Amino acid sequence: MNALPMTAAASGQVGSPLVNISIFLLFVAVTLVVVIRASRNTKTAADYYAAGRSFTGPQNGTAIAGDYLSAASFLGIAGAIAVNGYDGFLYSIGFLVAWLVALLLVAEQLRNTGKFTMADVLSFRLRQGPVRVAAATTTLAVSFFYLLAQMAGAGGLVALLLNIQSQAGQSLVIAVVGALMIVYVLVGGMKGTTWVQIIKATLLIAGAGVMTVWVLALADFNLSTLLGDAVEAAGNPQLLEPMQQYGASNLTKLNFISLALALVLGTAGLPHVLMRFYTVPTAKEARRSVVWAISLIGLFYLFTLVLGFGAMAYVGQETILAAPGGVNSAAPLLAFELGGVLLLGVISAVAFATILAVVAGLTITAAASFAHDIYASVIKKGVGDPEAEVKIARRTVIVIGVVSILGGIAANGQNIAFLVALAFAIAASANLPTILYSLFWKRFNTRGALFSMWGGLISCIVLIALSPTVSGAETSMIPGADFDVFPLANPGIVSIPLAFLLGWVGTITSKPDENHDRKQAEMEVRSLTGAGAEKATVH
Amino acid sequence: MSTTHDPYREPAAAPAGQTTWEEVQSSGEFQAMRRSFRRFVFPMTVAFLVWYFLYVLLAAYATDFFATPVFGNVNVGILFGLGQFVSTAAITIAYVRWANRSMDAKAAEIGAKVRLTEEGHR
């Protein structure tokens, strides 16, 4: 599938590629300086993976917003609202409400119990080896799909902003983005990556905020007027009602409910979000981080609502769909419409920065999981040299960087929001049940965890492979083939309950682990009180 | 720091009798804290999930209701959607106020007891 309408090439030139690229290079230069400065104190594994646990709640909360507000949020949701109206809004609500799961059930307890990775918590009172391998595998799977989405987004954006139409040219840009990301992560570790996230989140929210006020000013600061202008321009008043996109049949509605389930339960199982909670010194700071993250993310999604309808009103659906990059170009086109070449340049640079920062955050998570969970804990049985572990993590960064560049080139043109929704579905199926069971269910044991994680991961991927997304429809990845026996594009409604069920079945059909009561007592007391939690490193 | 063992390695051999963690876990204080924590977060979680899925199901199956105009071009659906933002903010504020008031002091107190008991065991 190639979603980029290349026929629009002739009319595709928007703004000045020179301005766009200059502003982007300025961002890269500034952040590189910050990353290099931040890296001076990176010595131990706790420094490299968890930034020495030295960030404050507000700083980490801003970085979480930076990690979370990916290209799918900015370009994807604004575009979805501009093209599908109300249905695009449904995405942002799921993405936001999901944070309550993290706030109430996961963030603080995770901070209190773990060290570097999600697997630290999952394997705390279970058998280390098999649970860590499973958790590292699901971490890599979630990160991989999320990475593909971001890299694919980079390709579409480049087509619009730098007016690079050829596949080869876009591939080259994806490779440059990937190479830059490798540099950030190698040099800066978690501390550098966190600073990149903070800068990016600030720019993104400020940029979207300026555009929002601008759009509202055009509509006399009246939401009703804006909505009226939007549907009038689109010539379809039904765009203010739900189910324009998902309402075709009961099957498409079920697909929407499945998506809604994955969105709300996925966030608290995203490894790159969970890992952020280790960068703060205490559970209380973890709580403050989530509050900051919720505030910033909520604000941003309100902005995208205005931007989406603003693009519908003042850019027009036909122009958006005809532009290179299609749906994803709504926000940049709106910037051009409002503030001309300069605002487009700024917003494009911010969008690039978004992709770069999210990719860096995902990469360090995946690398940490491989080095810490598989290399240090399973291969070296926890007695290896921590310095060697960090060395392995750095090498893993390069491997993941190269894989994501190749994957991104292959996925160029795929739907960003779909790939991200897939990552959420895997996180909600493979990770969340085990996280919740191990924190809240005393009887839970190793077999339950393995059933749930492998069952959730495998069912999710198999259902995707058998869905119309992969085969059987004109828009499929393999339109020629026809093995779409599962009718829904979103697998969550089946795979999430299945993973919860498997965790329960696996547990009740096997005996408690060795030292079950002792370890459960330790985990529970630690998770609620913070006794014995990893402290901040002092330099 | 040797007050707590490293949980990331398998314990060499389990010591006889109850560990500090088990003692603390079975103490009335800890049980009360755990109970009050669960009493707050579990109903809250059920509440926001029910409210969220009510919204999702109404959006999917009660489109006419969501399309009802309220004022100008703003309809019930938009207000319900914004209502999810409001409820998320309200639950966040409620939880943080509750946790700051009811959890932190107790957590610190029990945490200090863990260290004392641990020393008593040596």
Explain this structure to me?
The complex is a heterodimer of chains A (539) and B (122). By secondary structure, chain A is mainly alpha-helical. In chain A, 73% of the residues lie in helices and 0% in strands. The longest helix of chain A is centred in the middle third of the chain and has 52 residues, at 167-218. Chain A is globular, with a radius of gyration of 22 Å. Mean pLDDT of chain A is 86; it is low at 1-12. Chain B is mainly alpha-helical and 122 residues long. In chain B, helix 2 packs antiparallel against helix 4. Chain B is elongated.
Descriptive labels:
heterodimer, A: 539 residues, mainly alpha, 0% strand, globular, B: 122 residues, 5 helices, 2 strands, 4% strand
What's a concise summary of this model?
The complex is a heterodimer of chains A (539) and B (122). Chain A has 539 residues and is an all-alpha fold.
Q: Indicate the mean pLDDT of chain A.
A: 86
Which sequence of strands runs across the widest sheet of chain B? 1-2
Mean pLDDT reading of chain B = 85
Instruction: Give the helix tally of chain B.
Output: 5
**Unreliable residue runs of chain B:** 1-14
Task: Tell me the quaternary state.
Answer: heterodimer
Taking Cα atoms only, what radius of gyration of chain B do you get, to the nearest Å?
A: 24 Å
Strand coverage percent of chain B: under 5%
Number of strands of chain B: 2
- What is the succession of H and E elements of chain B? HHHEEHH
User: How much helix, percentage-wise, in residues of chain A?
Assistant: over 70%
Largest interface: A-B, 64 and 60 residues
| Main beta-sheet annotation of chain A | none
For the sheet with most strands of chain B, the description reads: 2 strands, antiparallel
| Secondary-structure content class of chain B | mainly alpha
